Amino acid sequence: MSEKATVKIRLYVDKKDIMYLNSIIDSYEGVGIVRTINRHKGQVVIYTTKSQKDVLISILEALRKEGVTLEIVGVIENEEIDSWN
After folding, report:
1. What is the pTM assigned to this prediction?
2. Which of 15, 32, 43, 83 could form a disulfide linkage to 37, CB 3.0–4.6 angstroms apart?
3. What would the mean pLDDT of 38-64 be, rounded to a whole number?
């Protein structure tokens, strides 16, 4: 896969924090795109590139230290969008 290949990071986020997560990731232009798969369950996918994956994971770890409840459940290199798998 190329450096621009899509990386899909699946995570669970407390539903009250989904909008905040989206705002923070959006503020880091080019790092990722947040898609809510199921807001009631807190299922979120963030799409990024292979070259931005480590930056994005660092941001997620900083948010967790800040008190945002999130759990990364998968990091997948995959071109399929809009699915939890």
Report:
1. 0.85
2. 43
3. 95
